[in-house]
Amino acid sequence: MTERIIFQKSTMLEELFGKTRWQRSAEIANLILRHYYPHVNPQTQLSATDVINTIKSSSLSGLFTASMNALQTDILYKSRLHGQSHIERTAVLCAFLALHLDFSEREFFLCLEAAKYHDAGRTREGEEPEHGRYGAQKIEAVCRTCTQEEQNLLKAVITAHCLPNKEELLIFQQYCGNDIISCRTFRRMIRILKDADALDRFRLSCHGPDIRYLRLKESQKLLLAACEMVNS
Fold first, then answer.
1. For 41, which DSSP code?
2. Most buried residue, 56, 141, 188, 199, by CB count within 10 Å?
């Protein structure tokens, strides 16, 4: 029997990870997918239960819990759209994708840190291309257990998450130089964060994300799960 996960700072995560009946959320999500994504095969979709149980049963579940309990909520942007709930759903989706892509324990941890603070630099709702760069300026203060190299990597990922793909390499070089190993990790992390952030667009509109722009094939299987979590 999986040990119950306790989240000290989040009512929403407590509800998501303690939820046993998803019928109503699933009904809403399936209606939305049938209407807005008629070309998506429902048999390919993973549910929120699938996502959460994958995290719960993982050897890294304790690291996920500890990381979310260490979330510094005071620096988050205070907003219904880009605030703590969005951050936490994005972190759940990032965690699932990182597990699915066999991230190392340290990469998994860094992926969560990027998810937790990717919108910390926001000053307003809507388009704000520089909010990632503003958020990167807060990383040294909140990620003190990270090495300087890891902090630079996080700064690059957070800066790049809200900018066009074509700018990613230049942003990485600005923070990390030409380190090949770090660049490989950066590319994996930025794809995960951009996809997880996009998947949570169901909070903005029933249209959700445009799946043509999802970078990972694994992400295209998470439309149902993402929609269920928003409507839980």
1. -
2. 199
